[in-house]
Structures are given as structure tokens and as C-alpha cells.
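Marked as duplicate of an earlier ticket. Keeping the data here for the record.
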Amino acid sequence: MAMDQPLLGGTTTTGMFGPVGLVIQAAITAAFWNAKLDLSSANETDKSSVYNYYVGVALMMFVGFGYLMTFLKAYGIGAVGLTMFITCLGVEFAVLTESYMGKG
């Protein structure tokens, strides 16, 4: 197999990934624009524990899943980028969901 050919019958184009990612990000941005985030209790929360929780989850996502997939020949370094993209969308979605669920 020549090195210029993708592995496992893949293609060299990204297809609809870019447009779909852009639409998802636009939808999340529109949801943030329309959301009414309640920040009244922000002064009462322990910021260091929330930050430590976020850092722990982010490290699990980026290092654990992203770099674990780089050792597979078919995915390579693209796995790190896709993991970062999905993690960022997940954090944005979690902030929105938590905001909407908190309103009851």
C-alpha cells in the first residue's frame, strides 16, 4: 500500500464535517444569545472546587481519549483535534443545559 493512500479505505476529504460543525456551533451560539443565564449565585460558589472539577474532566477528555486514539494508524493526530472539538461542544452544551435545567 502506498503511503499517499488513506488507510482502511478512507477518503482524503472531510466531506460534510466542516459545514455540520459550523451549523452546530452557530446553533449553540444562538442558544447562548437567547439564554438568560442566572449569575446571581456565582459569588456563593466555591470557584476553586469548580475549577478543579473542570480541569479533571478536561484532562480526562483531552489526554485520555485524544492521545489514546493517536496510536491507531487509521486516526493519527486527527483524533486529538476531533476530541478537542467534541469536548468544546460538550462544555458549551453543558453550560446551556445546566442553565435551562436550573430554571425549572
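See parent ticket for discussion. The chain is about 65% helix and 0% strand.
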